[in-house]
UniProtKB/TrEMBL annotation, chain B:
GO (cellular component) term, any one: ATP-binding cassette (ABC) transporter complex
Location in or out of the cell: Cell inner membrane; Cell membrane
Record domain ABC transmembrane type-1: where: 17-205
TM helices/strands, residue ranges: 20-41, 70-93, 187-208
Organism name: Ancylobacter defluvii
Membrane topology annotation: Multi-pass membrane protein
GO molecular function: transmembrane transporter activity
Function: Part of the binding-protein-dependent transport system for glutamine; probably responsible for the translocation of the substrate across the membrane.
Superkingdom per UniProt: Bacteria
Protein name: Glutamine ABC transporter permease
Alphabetical UniProt keywords: Amino-acid transport, Cell membrane, Membrane, Transmembrane, Transmembrane helix, Transport
Keyword Nucleotide-binding in record: no
UniProt GO BP: amino acid transport
From TrEMBL, chain C:
Identification of the protein by name: ABC transporter substrate-binding protein
Residues in the signal sequence: 1-25
Keyword Transport attached: yes
Residues that span the membrane, as ranges: none
Native species: Ancylobacter defluvii
Amino acid sequence: MTSAMLTSSALYLAQGALVTIGLSLGIIAVATVAGMLLALLRLYGWRPLGLLAAAYGLVARGVPLLVLLIGSYFSLPYLGLDMPLWLVVVLIGGLYFAAYAAEVFRAALAAVPRTQWDAGRALGMRRFQLFTIVILPQARRLSLPPFLNVALVAVKNTSLVSAIGGWELVAAGREIGERTMEILPAYLAVAAFYFVICFSISQIGRHVEKKMRYV
Amino acid sequence: MDFGFILNNAPLLMEGAAMTVALAIGALLGATIGGGVVAGLRMSRHAPLRCVGAGFVEIMRNTPILVQIFVLYFGLPTLGVHMSAFTSAVLAMSLQNSAYIGEIYRAGLESIHPRQREAALALGMMPGMALRVILLPQALRRVLPPLGNQFIIIIKDTSVASTIAVAELTQASKLLLDRSAAPYETFATVALIYLAISAGVAGVLKLAEWRYPVRVS
Amino acid sequence: MFHRMSRLAGGLVALAMGLGLNVAAAQESRLDTIVKRDKVIVAVSSTARPNGFIDENGRHTGFEVEFARLMAKALVGDPDKIELMTTTVDGRFPAVLSGKADFGISTATIYPDRAVRLAFTRPYIDSSTLVVVPKGSQIKTLADLDNENVVLGSTNSAAMVDRAKKYAPKAKAIFFDTDSAAALALKSGRSTAWQADSAAANFFVGHNGDEFVVLDGSLGTINNNAIFMKPGDFPLWLALDTIVREYVNGSRYGEYAALYKTWFGKEPPPQRPFNQN
């Protein structure tokens, strides 16, 4: 390989990495909001809704994301919904990882001692106030590392979009690898790009975690 | 929708599913134990060990399992190390998920207020006993749901083994799809099988959650 | 407030009309849709050199991709009025069955089991299967493959699996997702022989000729690769099939022959008399 080819391959991978970052951020945002809603429903919601949320969590987590993506992207036209690919990926990926995030949030919220609720109520705090000021900050401590796990898995799962006509980092690497029939160096380069993306995300997580540590 | 050919190919799918379960059991055991080691390193009193633990977690968690499995399977033979495809897959999944599960254990342990440990020591417990009797039981309960998450992710990650020619469920389904050109029927069936395996594992963890609830008092 | 409500109502009406139009559109041939759209959408591969891949300049090209452009030229009069929908092997059939793509050209072999659910035109190329082994290997002929010590690698397709079972039942057969992984298996010693589509095998040996050789003869029958589409749309199928015939054996044979020569370095099969077509 000449150096010009290496440069152009690196640029090509960098373009793929940008797509990966964009899709990942979208998916993580949807997963966080929807996951919190699901966790709240399961813990404090009206019981039938809570059971529904639990059932959703079981099914969404149990089915491979590839199947969900292919199933939804190629079936939506039948329902008259022709959404652009990135939107389908962000929504379906987000709702899928919401099921995982919900488990993390649920575990963390349930671990906050009930006495904290009692104490807050005794101080005359409203439920919402109590939740946001007292409970949530404590739950965050337990939820952050496993939430980071989910986020990193989400980043790496964006590679599945190539099955439905999407293009991102792994697809770019595979294209370079198949062109040269040398897949291993291409994949190692892909891994290096992933490392940069995921390491940045986990450093942000670590930083937040340090701020919340017990002193 | 026509599921006739699926029934005709049921043995192929069932063999694949059995291999998926075998891979998952291997990786679950490896990662559950490996995660303990990783958490131990990450929370060690010795800075070099903490560094090793942190470095391991960052490398394993921040690179794709696909690449890790390729390096183990295709790269190691050039160094004279020969492992079967099955062993390579189980090892790769165990290593990566040790990092994830180690972080989950650590979060659980660190979420328990340090005063509890101090109180146990003040009562005359040795540090090991305090960990075993006071800290671990509480931490394990708290981490059951995220642990369940990771177990289910492991089950679905076993599909990566198909890239190194392990005849598991995804490989069987790809063959069936290629032969029949019936994507919807094939994918629906495969999704149901994965769901059944995941539900089995999720069910066991749910039982554990009921048996050992997080004490909120 | 009222303004917003009326806008919402307008949106709902538009949505309902859209749904209604979709029902109507389902009844007209996709051929009319293509002509009205003035552009074709074709499902192709970007990881199957030399059929569909991204070249050194980042251009999506290859024999099949350029043939897709020839199809666009015939259908809407311009080889560039084309949208390439790149999918992996998993997504190529859903892409046409769902209507996201008009048709697909993606190294699909006509296979009897597939013909039940997918419509194929006549083939645009034959593909044969070659076997690659390391130089100095014990395997000297195709007959040597049927031996307990042989590990025969290939991609995970029905045709490859069936061939391995038929011609090397004693050998251990292993199946990978992509040709490059199967090639890597041969290089790293994970397999001792690799059965591959002639184009991929020739390309690999062309680049690794000092280490690997192609065995004489081809393994099994010749297969036909064809354009695939959603079944049940006769006007579209007839148009595609007619155009393919015109390229491979009719008035546009010259363009097809030039394309073939560019990618495979040799002349395509000669034009045949109509009664042997």
